[in-house]
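The protein record minuted underneath.
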Amino acid sequence: MMEIVIDILSWGFILAGVFFVFIGTLGMLRLPDFYTRLHAAGITDTMGMELLLIGMMLQAGWSLATVKLLMISLFIFFTSPTATHALANAANSVGLRPYGVPEKDLRRTSKEDV
């Protein structure tokens, strides 16, 4: 009986993860500019992968594979938002403007403006 509950939970997590990754893919295809696409990919990628990994951990049970999946999960949890922030910061540094924002509304961050 407990195996059935764990299977249902794990497949629920896996399907929820697939849903988030699919929504992120749609966001990458449909959104208008770099920043909104980066937001869609960064948020849904992290959440989708974490849900997928939790589902796989439930399927694996208590084993070495679960420990490895947990380590991968922690790595993704910390590096994915950091990479998203670094990409957005790099795009801002080279002057990539967000969609629909006029030049005068952008906040200056150069040394001359401080």
Remarks:
- The chain has a mean pLDDT of 88.
